[in-house]
Design goal:
- The chain contains 17 helices and 12 strands.
- It is globular and about 60 Å long.
- It has a 5-stranded mixed β-sheet, sandwiched between helices.
- α10 (147-161) packs across α13 (216-247).
- It has one domain (10-397): Cytochrome p450, CATH 1.10.630.10.
- With 403 residues, it is of the alpha+beta class.
- Helix content is 50%, strand content 10%.
- β6 and β7 (292-294) form a beta hairpin.
- The protein binds protoporphyrin IX containing FE (HEM).
- Protoporphyrin IX containing FE (HEM) is lined by residues 57, 72-73, 84, 136, 225-226, 229-230, 233-234, 237, 275-276, 279, 341-343, 347, 349-351, 354-355.
Length: 403
């Protein structure tokens, strides 16, 4: 175990996947002093921590609550189930495909129109980081003119959540954002309760399950969570998917030719380069996991990035291959593909189908606008992040098409 790079070391940051392999093979249950947590890396153990009720999400009360307030991620049991039932219908089925798909399409095209004639674009800063946030703002029925303001809030929130070095300026900006977002949203939430529309915010205000409605504070916290949970993840997923395809020109050509392969490519990209690498849980009693015992109330760090490349579950796990047999039968629902990028069990990503719809629209539109998309010469790929991980930039070049 001494040879395994520390989770917080530059060596780990440069190549977590090599460290993940060593962890799976030599230290499937590792006590990590600096994060004060037990680290699990094997597929079976990570899956178990997500599915088993013995593992609570109480740890989010100190990780997420300061910036978002109390959200469904912190809740377990009935309190969670009721609130999940309040929000879930907006993110699937008819509601998603009929009401929100046009919002997704409009936002994707607006962003692409801004660069389609330029012949060059950074897919991260000019598309991926903007697209999911703009979609959420419009789904909530907020003012489009506030897209930039939400982008700033979003950037401050994810910096706060990833602030490992505890930079006081980042912490302060996060707290300021919490207050600004509340000052912006709470009056709008009150208006929507009185005069609801058919937007997502009105639905969140009015939804009722077993006599429970969300309070103003809960609706605000959920919107704040949406920015981080729905923004940063989709942002990183879109960029990584394109990077993986650009690295494998034959697979890029296959997807370009047959767009029904997009969900499959998305699922494989989520397995190979998941946006969320680590998630924490807190056992409610002593549990056996990873070949050892973890005491009640301690923190367990679940390495999704390691589990997704466990050779016990995926053949040639370090190869990006959208044609891998594990994905056979995956046609529309990327989550069915066994990878753990959306977690599993009661907190399984409630926005998975929304993410898939965004990726389907985004990939189609970007491929149409850039028929000969290629990496910009000389651009270096830099991937960053510990809990979440993604590309700093992805500059590409293309010959503009008319239209
Ligand atoms: C939960 C990943 C997109 C909203 C989660 C969890 C993961 C995840 C791993 C579980 C967290 C845990 O158990 O601790 C992703 C990835 C996405 C994505 C990889 C994109 C590729 C979205 C989108 C939305 C969203 C687009 C909504 C706009 C949520 C919410 C939860 C959640 C509200 C909490 C669910 C609960 O506690 O029951 N997501 N997510 N996510 N996600 Fe996503």
């Amino acid at each position: 175990a001494d040879e395994i790079p520390d989770l917080l070391s530059p060596e780990f940051a440069a190549d977590p996947y090599s460290a993940y392999r060593l962890l799976r093979e030599h230290a499937p249950l590792l006590w990590h002093e600096a994060t004060g947590s037990y680290v699990v890396s094997r597929y079976e153990d990570v899956r178990r921590a997500f599915k088993d009720d013995l593992f609570s999400t109480e740890n989010y009360s100190w990780q997420l609550e300061p910036v978002h307030g109390r959200t469904i991620l912190q809740l377990d049991g009935r309190a969670h189930a009721v609130r999940r039932a309040l929000v879930a219908p907006a993110f699937r089925g008819k509601e998603l495909e009929e009401r929100f798909l046009p919002v997704i399409e409009r936002n994707s095209r607006e962003l692409i129109d801004a660069f389609r004639h330029e012949g060059r674009v950074d897919l991260v800063s000019q598309y991926a980081t903007r697209f999911p946030i703009n979609v959420i703002v419009d789904m909530l029925g907020l003012d489009k003119a506030d897209h930039d303001r939400f982008h700033r809030w979003y950037t401050a929130i994810i910096a706060f959540l990833g602030n490992l070095s505890q930079d006081p300026r980042v912490a302060e900006a996060g707290m300021r954002t919490r207050d600004e977002l509340a000052a912006y949203l709470v009056p709008i939430i009150r208006q929507r309760r009185e005069a609801p529309g058919d937007d997502l915010l009105s639905r969140l205000c009015l939804a009722e399950v077993d006599g429970v409605r969300m309070t103003d504070e809960e609706v605000k916290a959920f919107c704040s969570l949406l920015l981080a949970a729905g923004g940063e993840t989709t942002d990183k997923a879109v960029a990584s998917l394109f990077a993986n395809l650009l690295d494998h020109p034959d697979q890029l050509a296959a997807v370009r030719e047959d767009r029904s392969l997009i969900p499959r490519a998305f699922a494989e990209s989520l397995r190979f380069t998941p946006p969320v690498h680590m998630i924490m849980r807190q056992p409610v009693e002593d549990v056996e996991i990873g070949g050892g015992t973890v005491p009640a109330g301690s923190t367990v760090t679940c390495l999704i990035g390691a589990a997704n490349r466990d050779p016990e579950h995926f053949g040639s796990p370090d190869t990006f291959d959208l044609f891998r047999p594990e994905l056979d039968g995956t046609t529309s629902f990327s989550a069915a593909a066994r990878h753990l990028a959306f977690a599993l069990g009661r907190h399984f990503c409630v926005g998975a189908l929304l993410a898939e719809a965004e990726v389907r629209v985004g990939v189609n539109d970007l491929l149409d606008a850039m028929p000969d998309m290629r990496p910009a010469p000389g651009a270096r790929r830099v991937e960053r992040g510990l809990f979440t991980r993604g590309l700093e930039a992805l500059p590409v070049e293309f010959t503009p098409v008319a239209g």
